[in-house]
Amino acid sequence: MSFRPSRRQTLKQAFAAVAMASMPGLASAATRGESGLDAARAVLKRRFGARADTIDLTLASAASEKPWYAVRATGGELAISGDTPVALVRGAYAYLKEAGAAQVSWEGDRVALPSRLPDADTGRVESPFAHRAYLNTCTYGYTTPWWGWDRWSREIDWMAVHGVDMPLAMEGQEHVWRALWREFGLGEAELADYFSGAAFTPWHRMGNIEGYAAPLPTAWIDKKKDLQVRILGRMRDLGMTPILPAFGGYVPKAFATKHPQAKIYRMRPWEGFHETYWLDPADPLFARIAGRFLALYTKTYGAGTYYLADSFNEMLPPINADGADARDAAYGDGAANTAATKTKVEVDPALKAERLAAYGKAIYDSIRQARPDAVWVMQGWLFGADSHFWDPAAISAYLGRVPDDKLMILDIGNDRYPAVWKNAKAFGGKPWIYGYVHNYGGSNPVYGDLDYYRADIAGLIASRDTGKLSGFGMFPEGLHNNSIVYEATYDLAWNGGGASTAAWLSSRSKARYGRTSPELDAAMTLLVQGAYSTRYWSSRWWKSKAGAYLFFKRPTATIGEFPGHPGDRGKLDAAVRGLAALAPAYANEPLFVLDLVDAARQLASLEIDVQLQAAVAAYRKGDAAAGDIARRKIEDLALAVDALLGVQPETLATWIDDARAYGDTPADKAAYVANAKAQVTIWGGEGNLNDYASKAWQGLYADFYLPRWGRFLDALKAAGSGPFDEAAVVKDGIAWEKAWVAADVAYRRARPADPVAGVGALLARIDRA
């Protein structure tokens, strides 16, 4: 659409005219209130400075089926129109990025607005997705437990500039659960034994664990209540539709004990933890609890439309059991119900279908009774993670008795389980949101797959078999890593992200670093080919051993069998060296330095793994000299990486300091620090979760991973080519890990004086390895 203002038209009047033409029925913003415009302006001012006040914003009278914005800049004046406050913010950010004037990321922002904004006329830019969702239930354990309002305010701004309108809003619910269980007769001592620690609340909420790292301090519950009020206020002002929690059926053990006649199942232990308890939705208590929870939640935080209830997150539904006397019979014959242990048991298909249909309808009815217009939301992760149970017939049965417009599925795992929505026939006419987890546990190897996202999303949009596809989302378990992935995918969710990956990369470099060049574009292309062409970091779960690299995994002498990491190390090496060669010209661009360090530590971590394999192989042959040489290379590289990582936003010290600062008493501070240290190392339980949330952080390389492997290599060297009792050595190592978590040690971030020179020195060490 061409646009040429007449001499008598102001830019604002003319832009309002083009917006009117784009959307019949456009009225003044007053018809929707000024609050949305004010909220959008506030985001722009916080993120881009006082000059953002000069941007003319025009809000359409109503949201559209296809969200949209339009940008017009002429004569140095900028005007943006859109159908929601989020669309307005997104439009401003898209324009400023394209102009090379700004980038907003977890690592920090670069804002350099030119004295005169360049001319532009985008016409109407539509998203093919009605909603852009964000966050994962697990994010609230792996990333946000110590966040206050300042950090949450920034994250909501991040959502707005990336066009997110449907975030999961899970903070503050323990305040409601506490009030609920008090009403149902639980005492303070029972509640103290029930709630899990602050860094483990997501898995408690989903019924996987109970009372782990207890008690949860009362002050944490109260702080998060006040925080959620502010979070929801900001989200609603921006026109976002947050997804809120609902009752999924899990009850405290103390509640089960007090209600022996209730139909409550003792669910099997998850990942080595003790059992939890699930109330059958057919029991009258289920509806009472669900309704009361929503009443209390609404009184505390206001009403919502979308409510999340996940009853079977890596927990299989009870099918064979029936009645209060069958508490031990969930599904199958007693094997551990974990992601790593799948037990196939013959179940009558008719019984299975009927039971699942009844469960699904009753869960929905329990929400409807309190919020008649509500939509039940569930994550679709279980359909991929437990696909042996959730075959197409089971999925159809579970969803089938819920009205089509009253259930939304978050199909979050398409980068790992890409066939779920197809097997489920687009979830039988239910609205659903397509997306990727990408990140697991906040663990941060450098990876993603930019070309895959581009082709996959384009194919999704073009498909005729997507049923009621209603949105796209990113559902990371942890934040603060690989921000390029999230920038790329949300760009694709709005406007295709540019003509090609190469063009998008060049534009991103200009926005993120201030400028680009053929040499920088070439280096970034190599980085994509070497690291960002990996859909799923498969080696993080090698032989049921978590950890991003071998160096992060609990030591074992079997690492010679490790097949190697995904990605192209040769191209990664070339990319790092190409970026390092350009670094002197970009040394004053903090985001360039951060990205260079991140790519270099990925390369060095892969080399550490190679040297670990060499050391283990040499010691097992009885070649102590060769083993010692490899070990010295490991130590040299690990300590060099540790020193460099002081430039990154997060370190072991900052994670622990944030945890400690969240406490108001010495006891609370100690509890939070223990939670923080445990989560990124041992996690908990007797299953396979140790190192699941391993981090490439300063402090962990030098003080945890290196000494842990050092102890193991000492034992290997002592054994030589003779018998080696690995089980005993590992047992001793686990005791050392627990002592490390319990130790009261002060960590301090140490920033490298010259990180660019540090990368050069690290590359020299890799050359000598």
Automatic annotation (TrEMBL):
Residues 132-495 form the Alpha-N-acetylglucosaminidase tim-barrel domain. GO terms for molecular function: hydrolase activity. Keywords: Hydrolase, Signal. PROSITE patterns: TAT. It comes from the Bacteria. Residues 1-29 form the signal peptide. One of its GO terms (biological process) is carbohydrate metabolic process. Residues 504-761 form the Alpha-N-acetylglucosaminidase C-terminal domain. The keyword Cytoplasm does not apply. It holds the Pfam family NAGLU_C. Residues 39-118 form the Alpha-N-acetylglucosaminidase N-terminal domain. InterPro entries: Hex-like_dom2 (IPR029018), NAGLU (IPR007781), NAGLU_C (IPR024732), NAGLU_N (IPR024240), NAGLU_tim-barrel (IPR024733), TAT_signal (IPR006311). Coiled coil: none annotated. PANTHER family: ALPHA-N-ACETYLGLUCOSAMINIDASE. This is Alpha-N-acetylglucosaminidase. It comes from Caulobacter radicis.
